[in-house]
């Protein structure tokens, strides 16, 4: 099953680089927990991360967080796969 994670679900104090910032969103830690949880499920066969708008974040923090979130999901998924062998 494919999953989509929208960066606008993360609080704009952490990830301002999106076209639709929503105050009161997830913290970076909560977003990482979501990705770790998704990465642990065999049902997840595809993932994408949407709504990153680099032009709205001069610090490039949003892009870095987005990349880290995807890497976290992949690491968890492949770590689980390796341990099953």
Task: Give an overview in words.
With 85 residues, this protein is of the alpha+beta class. It has one domain. Helix content is 42%, strand content 12%. The protein is built from two helices and two strands. It has helices at 28-39, 61-84, and strands spanning 2-6, 46-50. The chain has a two-stranded parallel ribbon with strand order 1-2. Helix 1 runs parallel beside helix 2 (61-84). It is elongated. The model has no long low-confidence stretch (mean pLDDT 92).
Strand order of the largest sheet: 1-2
Strand percentage lies at 5-15%
Run of helices and strands: EHEH
Radius of gyration: 13 Å
Which range best describes the helical content: under 10%, 10-25%, 25-40%, 40-55%, 55-70% or over 70%?
Answer: 40-55%
Specify the number of helices: 2
The stretches of 5 or more residues where confidence is low (pLDDT under 50) are: none
Number of domains: 1
Structural class: alpha+beta
Mean pLDDT: 92
Main sheet specs: 2 strands, parallel
- Beta-strand segment tally: 2
What would you call the shape? Answer: elongated
**In angstroms, what separates the terminal alpha carbons?**
22 Å
